[in-house]
Amino acid sequence: MTLQQAHLEYVLRMGDNALILGQRLSEWCGHGPVLEQDIAITNIALDLMGQARSLMQYAAELEGEGRNEDQIAFLRDAWDFRNVLLVEQPNQDWAYTITRQFYFDAFNYYFHRALTQSTDSHLAAIAEKSLKEVTYHLRYSSEWMIRLGDGTDLSHQKMQAAVDDLWMYTGELTEMNEVDQMMIEAGIGVDLSAIKSLYDEKTCEILNMATMQVPTDTWMQTGGKNGRHSEHLGYILADMQFMQRAYPDMQW
Fold first, then answer.
1. 32: alpha, beta or left, given left = phi > 0 and alpha = psi -120 to 50?
2. What's the pLDDT tens digit per position in 35-46?
3. Residue 49 in contact with residue 70, Cβ under 8 Å?
4. Is 25 exposed, middle or buried (0-12, 13-18, 19+ CB in 10 A)?
5. What percent of the chain is modeled with pLDDT above 70?
């Protein structure tokens, strides 16, 4: 793999994380538990879609093959996506949605904070702009983790189940592969091993405040960064990409 290829894949991974999680959250639009949270979670989805668009515009520029952000988002197959497995997991209920969001937000905050120091000025600028939104996302999901975990017996039970079930997808967030290593050596990317301790500390802090047990299982699901996904991604793409594939190059 060349440095140019690794650079492109790194940006695509960030864009895919934001795009797929934003698509998942958008499924709550009109279905939230209360109106205020329906609006709040939809706004977070819009933040993520905005981040995805900036990153995919940059990916198109790096690729240099004349594609735009829409074509990158809507005309790739599942095996071309590089998002982590966590973000494609189903909403199921509010407990799973919030837990998935918190796990990702805790990582995303420290990742973006470190990425502002990238030698890639374009990527650093995207990170700087996105960090304000990412900081809010972490505060939002953390507050809900505590509110529900330390709430009623039923809310605690549902949250603990979600925490346990989604735990196996958290290891991939800070797992290093060849692309990460090349980006670190070039001064472009983030050393995930350096933020792992921060991520673990934040996760344990919030789970303890929420009176929940921190899972101890060390076995983790991986593969998303290398294009190996769960069956859920195919269903997401079937919905998300239908219009563009049915009516290629359509314009409003």
1. beta
2. 888 899 999 999
3. no
4. buried
5. 100
